[in-house]
Design goal:
heterodimer; A: alpha/beta; 7-stranded mixed beta sheet; 5-stranded antiparallel beta sheet; 7 helices; B: 11 helices; globular; disordered C terminus
Amino acid sequence: MLSIDLDFRRGAFRLQAQAEIGAGVTGVCGPSGSGKSTLLALLAGLLKPQSGTIRFDGDLLSGNGRFVPAWERHFGLVFQEGQLFPHLSVRDNLLYGYKRLEPAQRRFELQPVLDLLEIGPLVTRRPAQLSGGERQRVALGRALLYSPRLLLLDEPLSSLDERLKQQILPFLRRVKEETRLPMLYVTHATAEVDYLADRVMQMEAGRLREPAVA
Amino acid sequence: MFSPDELTALWLSAKVAFWATLLCLPPGIALSWWLARRDSRGKLALEVLVQLPMVLPPVVPGYLLLLLLGNQGLIGRWLNEQFGISIAFTWKGAVLASAVMAFPLMVQPVRLAFAMIDRRLEQAATTLGAPPWRVFLSITLPLALPGIIAGLVLCFSRSLGEFGATMAFVGSIPGETRTIPLAIYGYTHMPGGEVAAQRLTLLSIALASIALAAAHIISRRAERLLGYKPHAEH
């Protein structure tokens, strides 16, 4: 499904990754500074690799002189701190990507996503009026409503305390089971990956290791 | 309360300041964005050029405008011969002089507003299918709104107070280029003009205070609308 063979350098940092990533949830674990977030930024199209290729379902996204920009990749990305748009209501945040889709491309509708993530009562609020856990659920909902081909999650729970993490993890599991979206879940917390992922890869000093059996 | 001449000066000041502010807005936003976001070699030179009118004696930009756009000036003569357009000694010239002098005051807050926007918000919009121009219109520009409002008001207030460059470029022609500051100066040089000068002085102070207060109120409202956390010290 996702096939990568990448080489990226920035200053002294070098990231190299060769992998085939299939359906289900793939966890990418590694200490901070190992290049996990950079890997996601490369996949999302926010960074451009110096060489190598990224393919998705046979579609060349990067490499051989071609570079599909982030806004055309149709991948969802959930950031560490949600990155909700502060000037828009929760509802308008949720629909930001959805509105850009042709009706035929929409795989999820607002109401089922509100129900799935239990954020229905929040829609008229502003992001500043949400708790950390609510914010991450809205961020997840926003990415889902964009009907991404692949969902990239960049330490989505790392800014939350332990109690909140335990509250959100079941939502993520629910998303996994009900949407069957392929996901790449980056974290330094192996417990999250044990709970969610179908396979785990290790990132170490800019190198991505082949999957081990989870 | 005010004589017809004074009212004319007031009206002219408002007209000149309005057009000068409007004239500064599009290039002000474009340049502020560029200065906040791009790193290039020409940046320092451009910054110096933009800020120059703030530190130069105002008569210098005014005189340069005259050399360029005066009826015998490099560009002015051509404009006059080709299109019959004359800028010097008209209210349009007063607009241009005010715009040049007020432009740095527009750029400063707008640029700061752009610099303070979290780039990851723009990245988030990008990964939700928004191309760069749409990210700019739907995320960057609305988030910079408080800074843009502050810039507009500063620009407008500075234009209301413009004196030196206007005097050098377009002179003090009643009904055409004699704005409030030029009228005050005129009255102080006229026997028996003190009372009028003092009235216009009070008017200037009132106008400037209203503009600044309005700016504060509007940008605070905008910040609240944009969901910024209220600051404790307001």
